[in-house]
Design goal:
The complex is a heterotrimer of chains A (about 325), B (about 300) and C (about 250). Chain A is mainly α and about 325 residues long. Chain A contains 15 helices and two strands. Chain B is built from twelve helices and two strands. The chains are: A mainly alpha (about 325), B mainly alpha (about 300), C alpha/beta (about 250).
């Protein structure tokens, strides 16, 4: 069983590395696929593992988006150096924002936290579309990639692949340590965790800062890949990316390591393959999908497999959405 | 912020903003009260609240397209949304009544997306308004203008609120709803069909929102994406007022309306949405600060 | 006898309803002290005050000579006071072993503490303590799947895992199969004697508390009614009146 899993990962790694050469026409789509994996993974760190279901993580993505573009605009440096510097600037800003916002917002419990982050995400988009320094509602253009469009596709493909893999490995290491156990304890019963002396706020803020770091880097790369940054549709795109990251994590199985990865791949491929046929109705379909998944399939793919074949998939970390309790 | 000086120099303008704000705020109270009702009775936070308002607005709009005065759209919207709310309950909500509160937030958020995207497909993304043509009232030698439609709308909102209050207090269904809110298990033992009570509560809430939407389309504007703002407003009002506190809902609603008018005058209308959503974050943080001071987190 | 926990005139009211009025209470290092009283007499409120779940209105709470009534819940827990809950609370979707290991005290603070690996000795101690309460066979079961009594035992083991100096137990035998109660009493005694844990126990089962406690406090209507040896308290006419009239 272990060998089989190892073989699957190895084949997956080879396919991932070779994808730009196997299917050169879809390289941009595959780049986005890895970004989706990253988005779902970072959402699950707070949402699935700690039970703090956020609708506002897109804020950190947007900060990264804008920071990178502003740095490129203000510094007269070469494209890649500018992207690197911009990425770092965005990372610092986003992590600081997570620290400041998190220290307040993460004290909110359950549904209050969810609605508050929903407000936070929309507020960020609205504020950005009124701020002239970053182009207000008109948006900003990111510098053009110095090379062929094909080269740009390959570059961003590997950039997102590296980001997603580093994110996955970081979270895997975290979950295997004390951090993962405390995160799950907070999810299951935060009052109990406090009564046992765990510094829960520290853990929650730290988790949000880690998520913010990866999200800001993804945002910086995404803004450059798109070449244009719109406040509501690209940077603080709560309507699309912001909702999708929640949906992908739950679809795959929230609170599991592989769930967000599986969910992101299934969701993104489905979207790419089928949604063009829906002609404008795809966002209606997205809403229906959310309702159906949340109401009828909350355990997700990995959770379903773990219930079906516990000896094979049984990490026994089934979705945080299944337990009927109204106490908190 | 330059407008601060203007307010200082023209006190009647301050009064104008205050009147506008309070009149608008009275409309906010309706969906807020409905949200408190659903939250209190079913333990569900209905994120689709604002989208029911939006749908009610479109119903009134189509009533006016048919050549009928949009004011008649108020009862029509209430009736249509009542049926619609009942259907939504049967399709989705009844599956999530016993589940975690976050499930209700996420599921109703999904409903909200469905409704706004459906509206976008069916009615287009244009900003719409239904002209009521009721003229305006001028005060203080016409330095203050109040659209008569706003006065009528507030009167209707008031009547609706009183009817609702009496209904919950005295009717059989109203008493069943209140009993279920207090203790669903005991209510069930006493022979109350709680699933029917839930269905009626949710449908009633949708009807209230629909009526509010029919008023909104006449005094203001609607478009497919306007729902979330109304949801957030309702949520804020309920958080400030608490569940089951009608006077609190009214006060918080009027206060929010006035605050928004002043904010959009001072900061510029393009920041009004940003103000509403930022205010939400501030209010929730303030609330958690108050709770932490009393260390009530076991509640 | 060294006083470990001292309560002096502790009062607490909720919106005008007085839950605790001028409570004096002292627990010595190494003692087993019982706290009894009819339902609604304010015992759990007193526990919540000691553990920091709400601020007290008046009085002082000293632990090992230091005032703790202004500290927050996790800080008090880290000083060495661990409480269990009347409605048992365990991490329901984690296994028994995970419940235990996450309860181990960590020396390292901040980031080093978060990123620390799970120590081998913590695992071994968790195993030993699960064995001690008789849950060793269930160590990989999900805590939420355990029976009510088993969850109570797990919560007790988790509290011991934290290496507390003082353990506040809220009805440790409620919901436990009557045939197993003597075993629970035995384990409480052994925890006290072998692990040097001082115990303050709320208990409704009179047979259990008379058997277990070295000293008893009895509360009624938020006030401290009587204190003394189990024999003294049992024969105190005010205590009898409170129980007969109160419940």
């Amino acid at each position: 069983m272990r060998a089989l899993g190892f073989a699957a990962v190895a084949v997956g790694a080879i396919l991932a590395l070779a994808a730009p050469f196997l299917l050169p026409n879809y390289v941009a789509q595959f780049a986005i696929l890895w970004m989706m994996v990253l988005l779902a993974l970072t959402w699950d760190l707070i949402g699935g593992q700690m039970g703090y279901n956020s609708f506002g993580n897109i804020v950190f993505f947007g900060i990264g988006c804008y920071a990178a573009a502003v740095v490129q605009r203000s510094l007269d440096v070469e494209y890649f150096a500018g992207l690197a510097l911009g990425g770092i600037a965005g990372l610092v800003l986003a992590v600081a924002a997570a620290l400041v916002l998190g220290s307040g917002i993460l004290r909110l419990r359950g549904q209050y936290f969810a609605i508050c982050t929903l407000g936070l995400g929309v507020a960020a988009g609205e504020l950005a579309s009124g701020w002239d320094f970053i182009g207000a509602g008109g948006g900003m253009t990111a510098p053009v990639y110095p090379g062929s469009p094909r080269g740009a596709g390959v570059f961003f493909y590997y950039l997102f692949l590296v980001l997603a893999v580093v994110c996955f490995l970081t979270l895997r290491a975290l979950y295997a340590r004390r951090f993962g156990l405390v995160a799950n304890a907070i999810r299951d019963d935060e009052d109990k965790a406090e009564a046992m002396g765990l510094p829960t706020t520290q853990y929650k803020v730290a988790a949000w800062m880690i998520a913010a770091a990866f999200l800001s880097l993804a945002g910086a790369a995404y803004g450059h890949l798109q070449g244009f940054i719109d406040p509501r549709d690209i940077a603080f795109s709560g309507e699309t990316l912001g909702v999708w990251m929640v949906l992908m994590a739950i679809l795959g199985g929230s609170g599991t390591l592989w769930g967000p990865v599986v969910g992101a791949i299934v969701f993104d491929v489905t979207q790419e393959v089928f949604w063009t046929y829906l002609l404008g109705w795809q966002r209606v379909a997205l809403g229906v999908l959310i309702v159906v998944i949340v109401v009828f399939f909350p355990q997700g793919i990995i959770g379903f497999l773990a219930e079906r074949w516990p000896e094979r998939f049984g990490s026994r970390r089934v979705s945080s959405l299944l337990v009927p309790d109204k106490v908190s | 912020m330059d407008n601060l000086l203007v307010l200082w120099q023209a006190p009647t303008l301050t009064l104008q903003l205050l009147i506008d704000g309070v009149l608008v705020g009275a409309i906010y109270c309706l969906p807020a009260y409905g949200m408190a009702l659903v939250w209190g009775v079913m333990k569900i936070i209905n994120v689709a609240q604002g989208d029911f308002v939006m749908l009610g607005g479109y119903v009134a709009l189509y009533v006016s397209y048919a050549g009928i005065h949009p004011m008649f759209g108020v009862p029509v919207a209430a009736a249509v949304l009542f049926v619609f709310g009942w259907i939504v309950y049967q399709l989705v909500i009844r599956h999530i009544v016993d589940r975690d509160l976050f499930v209700s937030v996420l599921a109703t958020f999904g409903i909200s997306i469905v409704l706004q995207q459906l509206a976008n497909q069916l009615f287009s993304a244009n900003v719409e308004t239904a002209e009521a043509n009721l003229g305006s009232t001028y005060l203080f030698g016409s330095t203050i203008v109040v659209g008569n439609i706003k006065l009528v709308a507030v009167a209707i909102a008031l009547v609706l609120a009183v009817v609702l209050f009496l209904f919950l207090k005295h009717s059989r269904l109203g008493q069943a709803i209140r009993a279920t809110a207090q203790n669903p298990r005991a209510a069930r033992i006493l022979g109350i069909e709680t699933s029917q009570v839930f269905a009626m509560t949710y449908a009633l809430n949708a009807a209230i929102c629909g009526a509010a939407g029919a008023l909104v389309v006449q005094i203001w504007i609607i478009h497919p994406y306007i729902g979330l703002t109304y949801t957030i407003r309702a949520f804020m009002i309920v958080v400030v007022a608490g569940l089951g506190n009608i006077a609190g809902v009214v006060l918080a609603g009027l206060g929010l309306g006035a605050a928004e008018q002043f904010a959009s005058f001072l900061l510029g209308a393009e920041y009004q949405a940003a103000f509403v959503f930022s205010l939400l974050v501030v209010i929730l943080l303030w609330r958690s600060q108050m709770l932490a001071r009393r260390r009530l987190y076991l509640k | 006898m060294n006083p470990l926990l001292e309560l002096d005139g502790v009062s607490k009211s909720f919106g005008g309803v007085r839950a605790n009025t001028a409570i004096d209470l002292a627990v010595g290092e190494g003692e087993i002290v019982g706290l009894i009283g009819p339902n609604g007499s304010g015992k759990t409120t007193l526990f919540n005050s000691i553990a920091g779940h709400h601020p007290i209105d008046a009085g002082s709470i000293r632990f090992a000579g230091q005032e703790i009534s202004r500290l927050r819940v996790p800080q008090i827990a880290r000083r060495g006071i661990i409480r269990t809950f009347q409605q048992t609370r365990v991490y329901r979707r984690m296994t028994c072993m995970q419940n235990m290991v996450v309860s181990a005290p960590v020396a390292a603070q901040g980031i080093a503490g978060m990123l620390g690996r799970i120590a081998r000795e913590d695992g071994e101690r968790a195993q030993a303590l699960l064995d001690f309460v008789g849950l060793a066979a269930l160590r990989h079961s999900q805590a939420g799947d355990l029976s009510f009594g088993q969850q109570r035992l797990l919560e007790f083991a988790m509290a011991l895992m934290r290496r507390p100096r003082l353990l506040l137990l809220d009805e440790p035998t409620a919901g436990i199969n009557p045939t197993l109660i003597n075993g629970v009493i035995d384990r409480l005694r052994r925890a006290n004697a072998e692990l040097q844990v001082t115990l303050l126990v709320i208990e409704h089962n009179m047979r259990v508390i008379m058997n277990l406690a070295q000293r008893l406090y009895c509360m009624s209507h938020g006030e401290m009614l009587a204190a003394g040896t189990p024999g003294e308290v049992r024969n105190d006419p005010r205590v009898l009146a409170a129980y007969l009239g109160g419940s």
